[in-house]
Structures are given as C-alpha cells and as structure tokens.
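tool=predict chain=A
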Amino acid sequence: MLRMSYRTLQQRMEQVQATCIFVEQEVEYELLFIMDVVNQRLNSMKVSQDTPRIELWKTPFYDIKVLQNLAASYDDFEKLRLHVTTPLQLSTLPGAEMELDWGDLPAYDDVKGFMAKNQHKSSDDWTLIKETSAETLLGREMLKSSESGERSYSFRQMQSRESNESVFVTQKGNVVGGGTYNVLNALAAYLRYLEGTAREDWQEVHAKLRASESRNGASFNALFGPALSLGIISRRRVHYEAIKYEKERNGGFLPPFGYSTATIEAAVEAVFSKEWYWLLALRNQINNDEKQSTRIWRWNGFLIQYTVAGEEGPAVLLVHGFGAFAEHYRDNIHDLARAGNRVWAITLLGFGKSEKPNILYTELLWAELLRDFIVDVVGEPVHLVGNSIGGYIVAIVSRVWSVLIKSTVLINSAGNVIPRNTSLSLSRPSDRQTSGATWLGSRILLFFLRLTIQDTVKKCYPTKVERADDWLINEMLRASYDPGVPVVLESIFSFNLSIPLNYLLEYVKEKVLIIQGMKDPISDSNATIAMLKEHCDGVIIKELDAGHCPHDEVPESVNTIICGWIQKVESNILAGFPV
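tool=predict ok
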C-alpha cells in the first residue's frame, strides 16, 4: 500500500515539477509513521535538480511559540489566558497551464477488488467484529442463558426522513458530513437551536441534537466530532462562529459570566478541550524521553495514548484501573517485554493524557474501546491483563469477543461473584442519563479526592507505601485538572457491575489467571477468593501480600507470575492442548 502510494506520488510530483509537499501537522502514530516513510523516499528523489521536502501546515489554535514550556496542568494553562487565533480566509491559488492525466474514476468492482487484496492481516472473523456493540451481544447472551423470552438490548438510532438537502452522512446516523460549507451550515443551525426555524435542513439538525443529548452538551461531539477529526472544519473556526453568534446575541459584547445558550457553551468547551489534548500529544512528541515508545491512536475521533515495548513474542495488553493510566504499569511493561513479549499498555478514554470528551462513560464503552484497539492496533489475539475496574472491562471483552483473547489476567478486579442460576439484568445507556444529583456529586467527589489523594493512594499500597511516590501522586493530580474530568467521575454513580465475574468468565475460565492482593482496602479479598473458588472453577488463583495494585506495589512478583502464565498458555496453544 505504501509503495503504491509512493509511486503515484512520485509520478505526480515529476509531472507538475513539485518540490514541496504540504501536510497537516499530526499526532497519530500511524500518520507520523507514513510521513516518515514518505520523507525518507523523498530524500532519494530529484525534481528540477532539487530534493523534495515535506512542509508541515500548521494552523495553531493558540499562538504558542515553545511547546516544551507548555504548562503540565490545564489549571495552570488556563491562567495564561492565551489569545485564540483568527481563522484564515480562503485563498485563491494561482492557476498554472499544464495538462494532467487524471486517469479513470475507479468503478465499484475496482474498489472492492482492491479492498479484498489489502484486507487486514487478522482472520476473516475480525472484519465484522466491530460492527455490533457490547450491549447488543451481552443482551443476546443473557437472553440465551435465562431463556426469558425475546427482548432487544440494541441501541436505537433515530430514523430521519429522506432529504436531498440533508447535512448528515446517513439517514439513520447523527454525523454531520459533506464539505466545509455544509458543516458550517449545520453548525449555524446547532448554535441557533433556541431560535427555532422553518428550514427543513435546520429542523433535521435540531432533531438530531435532541436525540444525541445523552448528557448536557454531549450532542456537539456526537454531531461534529468526525468533521473536526477529518479537518472539514477547524477547532478555531468553530470557536470563531460560536463567539460571533454570542456577540450577535449580546449587542457586540461577551457576557462576563458564561455563555447565553447551552449550544454555544457546548461548542466552545468542546474545542477548548480538544485543543488541550492535541497540545499534550504534540508536547509528548517533543519531550519523549525515549524510555518507552508513547504513541497516539485516534478512536471515534478522540485521542488515546498508549505505550509499546518489545520486538517479538506473544502480544500482551495491560489495562489500568479507575483514575490511573498506562504508566501505572511503569515497572511491568519493560520486564514483560524483556521476557520475550510484545507489550501494549493503553490509557483508557477519560483518564491520564487520553482525551476526556463530554460523553456518557460506561463499562461497555471502554470494552468496545479495547476491542477496537486489539483489532486496529495490535492486530492479533492478546493476553489481556486488567486491574480494578480495568479487570472488569477485560472480563467483558473476554466474554463478548473471546476470539480476540489468548488468556485473561485479572488483578484485584472489580465486580462480584454470585451463585449460579441467579437472574441477570443489563441496563441500557439510556437508563443511565445523568441528573442534577450526579452532576453535583461528581464535583464534590473531585474536590474531596484532590484533598485526600495522597492518603487514599497510600492506603492501596499497605506493604510498600513508598511505591505510592510523588511521581504517581503528582500525575494523578495533574490529570484531575484536565477538562472533562467531572464528566468522567459522573460515571461512578452510574456504573453497572451487576453482571457477575463468574458469568463473564464462564466460557474462558480455563484461560483465566486471578492475581489477588490480600490486603486490598477497597474489597474483602478473602471473601472474593472464596466465592471465586466456589463459583468459578477452573481459574488459577495467585494470592499476594499486597493491596489493591499488586502490579505496582510488588511488580517483581507480578511480573514473574504473568511471565510464567504466558509461557504456559503459549506452550499449550502450540501443543494443541487446553490451558
């Protein structure tokens, strides 16, 4: 694929005598990798006696000169009160007299044939695996188990009327698409929601807005997130249009105490948030200390940070707990890699330096994130390791998409174990919409956590309190000031952990390792182990003298256990035996 693109690029450059390629500044690893390959190829080319070069097209939201000096905390960054730059006006490029052979427009069969030749390396079963939600699949499984009759748990999508003037990509979806003017028209309709309209295309935007408002302000990302990610419209253009409309409503002035409509507030806060995480990712590229390869992956339009180590061996994916991040596995990543594994550690959406958008966070959302990461980034079945709530999410993936999993390792996992033949229930995201109480509760909880974070974390490290060091505490504190954190904390009040671990692990229990810190202050480890032994036969259990985070408190012990487990599983797979 890269070779074919390069040959086409070389032909076009020689045809028009181009000596410079302009590309937009990017932070995603895959795009950076492609740019690096193209740049290396360009160094071997000559056009008009010059070596072609890549020139980054930069359109900064803020006028920041030195990214290395970017404030680490969003709280400190806001205090700088940086000016938002004005969008550039469209320019008319000078004409050039030349004849170009544009070739033939490919037919559908041509595109279909190309996709068949360049399909994903994974098995054929993976090509459709991302098309069904975790909620739908779990609903089907639970219906089979309970034999309670037919009931659909699938997400309902709004069916819009047919319209040749629609600004949406599909009739059923809520994604605004088309060209820049199309998106600007939809943005104008979105911002002016309170005014009402007789225009059919604007009425459609207003209807989709209402359908997408899973929580206050969430509709903006749902409608315009893809257009922002694709560069159809820029963050600063959204800001410009929102502020212009705000001034129109207030006689040319900006009110000192917030915005006059919820849609203006949603648009402005969304682009401010997106710009912050973009700057964090750019800063990370410049300040990477080379100790580990930290990369960015875009999922559903949001920036996700992850770390990679190791060149060969089985694939291992590490998943952190609530409030943590990929670096919580700081002393596991490289030890596992040195033992002959390829290791990925992901920072889930809503945590660490990954983006924290205004959306409804659920355990099923994070499970789908892991599914897509395994399919799109890792590209092969993994040994999936999770701590705390990360363990529960890992268990969901193991139940719903077992084809993606070689084995499952749960470290002081969240979730309950209940007696067999107990009735099960699955709540839908629509049943978890936030209220005024959860809004207030999340902000009180955030204030409390900031005051007590050091004591709280140290209690989770009862045998080696020194492991809860300043670096760990400060990084958690830094993340607590990121935009969107209160929204993530609201999820604590709506988590549904009612599906028991023994049900989630039922079909893979021979491939499950439980590592339990027996001095966990958050849960009763003795009771958990007793219930696992009684109702989840077949799993392997290792007890450690540690608290809630054994992987960071006693990393040497955990690394030894996991490495031995992976070797055993891999040997059995090669021999064709069950684990």
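Residues 445 and 489 are 8 Å apart (CA to CA). The two ends are 38 Å apart (CA to CA).
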